[in-house]
Protein: Carboxylesterase
Organism: Hymenobacter nivis
Amino acid sequence: MGPRGPRRPVLVFFHGGAFVLGTSNVPLYDEANFAKQGVVFVSLNYRLGIEGFLKIPGVPSNLGIRDQLAALRWVQANIANLGGGPANTTVMGESAGAMSVAVLLASPTARGLFRRGIMMSGSGQAALSGVQASRIAAQYAKVLKIPNTARVHRRFTPEQLLAAQAQVTPKIVHLETAEHAEPTGGLALFFPVIDDDIVPAVPLDGLRKGAGGAVDMLVGYNSDGANYCLVSTGLLKKNRLNLILYKAARLVHPAPAALVAVHKKAYPKKKLGELFSTVITAYQFQVPSVRLADALARQAGRTHMYELGWRSSVAGGVYGAYHGLALVFGHRALITGPRGVLGPAGAPAALATQMQAAWVAFAKTGNPGWAAYRPGARGTMYINTTWQLQPNPHANEIQAWAGGALAPGPRR
């Protein structure tokens, strides 16, 4: 018999990690602060990389997503015994976890398993075609020197399989096809695979046709999302950065010079490295988030949008509002100080409190505290030490991406 009293909202969290790494069992994902505010918090692990997303004939597809579905079914069947209300379940993810939320939102197999969703720095375009997935599987089998069959794969230990996975990188697998662009511009390889079952189509395409139903959504991204990669690889300090900027734009847009010109005009004070980050952030996070919100806002559920602009002071502030920053506000004791990812001073306590309160309010009611997103108006809450609901922010830059190759969905 379960606990007595009112049922609490349930928040189910999917961790990120490019579908190849990560675990829920790290201090950063110990969201005790959510539980303290009256939410039953659930986190889980799911199969990754070759175990979760390699296409092998005769093996069920998308095992990582199937793990997430199994967890959501468990929540529906059992969470009442822990005081949670199964009918008031919110799924939340960051990065690949947010992409998972989009996949589940568009999947008929997840219908009725959650009422709301939170996507932090994700995309509705994270799905490989069967052709792309087969290219990855072929390269993997080549490394192992085996045919791509389930029977042969079973001969190897997990350690051997993972060692082979490390040799299969985006640099050696050409994923570009006439219908599908290369996911993330070559930064990652494994994604959910279109299978006419768990993933019937690229999530954004399904959502544009109404697959999301009446699910409420909170969607957002960070202003300097690409810095997590560009700073650590030293790209922002490379010589001939102007050439690199145009080459990068050429990879992701049919009119690279025009695209760069629009961003230069919008941010005249930005240095080349900062401009490079802005273009890649738009490609990976900003424009996919806006396109997703546009599709969702035309459905029965309410959609809310945010942009996190608060900048970390770590490493002299070079990382800014980088990818993953939204996760850390509840863990100031872990990540402040000279080596902390928020910088020596950490985040303002009021900002952390306000962000958590907004997320909890959304999980409880579907309203984080600001007006719902509408196509055209595109009201977006800009989150910093002060909060401001902005109408149609970055309109010119987002419009410049119309017709661009935002991977991995079908080209338009």
